[in-house]
Amino acid sequence: MSDPAGVRSMISIALLRPGPRWVLDQPLGDQDDVGQHFAYMDELAGAGTVTHGGPLHALNDLLKGDLVALVVFSVTADRAAELMQLDPTVRSGLMACDVLPWYQSR
After folding, report:
1. Are 77 and 100 in contact (CB under 8 A)?
2. DSSP H or E segment with residue 72
3. Residue 37: φ, ψ to 5°
4. CA angle 98, 99, 101 (to 5 degrees)
5. Distance CA 17, CA 105 (A)
6. CA–CA distance, 33 with 8 (Å, rounded to integer)
7. C-alpha–C-alpha distance, residues 90 and 105, integer Å
8. Among the listed residues 13, 22, 12, the one whose alpha carbon sits nearest the alpha carbon of residue 95
């Protein structure tokens, strides 16, 4: 994806949503593999690759949607997508993930 004129993107976001193994009406903390997901996110945060992340309960309620969490990366969208494919919850099918560049002005 090319960057719009006048902006650069070294930041990206991952939007996590329920995957095929998600158990409806079960809180995030009670879902399988979530502990491994938290450990993986802590590892990425410790390396400086993830800068922010967390559940979107209030936004999910407002939008009546199926977003679970947002993760902000300090790397390109391509690299963030590679890293998210290693997330235990994405690998197991508990969560699905979309990664997008997040543009910032120069």
Report:
1. yes
2. strand 69-73
3. -60, -45
4. 145
5. 28
6. 35
7. 31
8. 22
Is the pTM for the entire model greater than 0.85? no
Q: What does the pLDDT average to over 2-21? A: 78
pLDDT band at 92 (very low <50, low <70, confident <90, very high): very high
d(CA 26, CA 7): 40
Contact at 8 Å (CB) between 12 and 100?
yes
Question: Residue 99 pLDDT > 80, yes or no?
Answer: yes
pLDDT in tens, 13-57: 999 988 999 888 887 788 888 999 999 999 999 999 999 998 876
One-letter amino acid of 23 = V
Q: Kindly state the tokens that stand for 85.
A: 């494919």
Tokens 């994806």, residue? 1
Report the run of H or E that residue 8 belongs to, with start and end.
strand 7-8
Half-sphere exposure of 72 (CA within 13 A, CB side): 10
